[in-house]
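User: Please fill in residues for this 184-position structure.
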């Protein structure tokens, strides 16, 4: 069996990490752990949620061609998909989950990778939903939160370029909808 590369994008706070975590409970899925220059949040561990790199280390990897794509996402922080992660997971015959922003998805499409792209949408009124979810997560406040909401507006405009759009209203329903897409 050969695995598929599955991109899950959506605005900050919509529930990408939560949904990906649920999909990863299935043995045939594995997360491509990205590299980032952003600081760790809460209980995050190096090598689990991300490979946390200094800006210098990140830029060395760019120069080495280690990334399938990379982008500056928030506040000058860089995020990138490591070629070795994706190839390693696909070589095991598993589906690889890519939690990347809209710029990353576009670069992966341009590379001609066989992708299934899914955009997670917040239930309306979207701004209220994202504000509440980020507030509940508790690690994104003040100016950072406002910047993420501003960026969310731009990202939502990109939803139409994805293969599928799934509203993350009820978590179980959204996860079931994604499984159905991937089985279909
Ligand atoms: P993202 O990775 O997209 O930034 P997270 O997965 O961190 O978002 O989720 C943001 C917050 O929303 C978390 O507190 C999470 O528990 C909550 N959340 C995720 N999915 C749902 C849902 N379907 N309904 C209500 N809250 C949710
Ligand atoms: P966070 O800082 O909340 O973990 O993630 C912020 C944003 O970065 C999210 O929109 C997420 O999809 C995006 N992101 C995470 N990893 C990557 C990556 O490897 N490449 C790109 N382009 N975006 C990423």
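Assistant: Residues filled in for all 184 positions:
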């Amino acid at each position: 069996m050969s695995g598929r590369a599955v991109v899950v994008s959506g605005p900050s706070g919509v529930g990408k990490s939560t949904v990906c975590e649920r999909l990863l409970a299935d043995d045939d899925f594995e997360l491509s752990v990205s590299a980032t220059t952003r600081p760790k949040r809460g209980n995050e561990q190096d090598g689990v949620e991300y490979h946390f790199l200094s800006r210098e280390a990140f830029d060395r990897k760019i120069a080495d061609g280690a990334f399938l794509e990379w982008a500056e996402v928030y506040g000058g922080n860089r995020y990138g998909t490591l070629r070795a992660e994706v190839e390693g997971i696909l070589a095991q015959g598993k589906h690889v989950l890519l939690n990347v922003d809209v710029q990353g998805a576009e670069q992966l499409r341009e590379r001609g990778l066989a992708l299934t792209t899914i955009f997670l949408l917040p239930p309306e009124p979207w701004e209220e939903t994202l504000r509440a979810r980020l507030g509940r997560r508790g690690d994104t406040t003040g100016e950072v939160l406002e910047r993420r909401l501003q960026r969310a507006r731009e990202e939502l405009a990109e939803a139409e370029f994805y293969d599928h759009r799934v509203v993350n209203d009820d978590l179980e329903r959204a996860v079931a909808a994604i499984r159905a897409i991937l089985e279909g």
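For context: The chain has a mean pLDDT of 94.
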